[in-house]
Amino acid sequence: MSQREQLEDILSGSEYEAYRNQGGGFSFWDWLLEKIGRFLSWLLPDLKPGEGTLNIFALVLVLALAGLLAWIGVLIARRYSGGGRLRSRDYMASGEESRSWRHYWAQAEKHAELGAWRDGVRAVFLALLFYLEQRDMLRVEPWKTNREYAEELAESNAGTAAGFLQAAMTFERSWYGRGEVTGEQLEAFRRQAESLMKEAGDPEP
Question: Among residues 146, 151, 143, which one has the least CA distance to residue 125?
Fold first, then answer.
């Protein structure tokens, strides 16, 4: 019987199990090292890693798992947090191909006349997006988030980027968050968008 086999017999023996169960200083780290040692022995029979090697391997494994969990947590937080992370496809109707900001501005006025305040907010926001696209300050794509649009704007006009992100958050609270919207709020949002359009460079809607 080889030394490795003798060691495995000892580790799996009743005396060693009793020592572990009685809490004789056997920690989770010890358990992890044992499992890693057995796995490496199975994977590479000729390899006889020392305690230092097992410690490094276990540390790398723990850090990798922690990194994976952190990455998953970030993805979940981005998916469910607000603050400009709503994607364009979440509020653009299927088959909606118009890229004219004037088209959406006119829609906003119609929604206001009908008392459809929330739809009016959406139309104003789309008008703002496509106006900024017309000014070559960003490119509207279904997969982009509003935060990404703000980052595009920051490359050319930091002031407009900050105002846009604030408008995006207002829009998301009313559209995605299903917050109550009044005619006064729609009008205030329209003025906010109009101010950003002027700041971006020109014509009044």
Answer: 146
> Which residues, including other chains, have CB under 8 Å from residue 194's CB and lie 6 or more apart?
204, 205
* CA–CA gap between residue 200 and residue 137 (Å, rounded): 8
For residues 73 and 94, membership in a common domain is answered with: no
Q: What is the CATH number of the domain that holds 110?
A: 1.20.120.330
> Do 94 and 70 share a structural domain?
no
SS3 state at 145? strand
71 compared with 4, residue with greater pLDDT:
71
One-letter amino acid at 30 equals D
Helix, coil or strand: residue 87:
strand
Each residue's pLDDT tens digit, 181-205: 899 999 999 999 999 999 887 654 4
Domain-ending residue, one of 33, 63, 80 = 80
pLDDT-above-70 percentage for the chain: 54
Residue that is written with structure tokens 């900050």 in the block:
162
Distance CA 87, CA 114 (A): 27
For residue range 153-167, list pLDDT tens digits in order. Answer: 988 787 788 899 999
According to DSSP, the residues that pair with 145 across neighbouring strands are 87
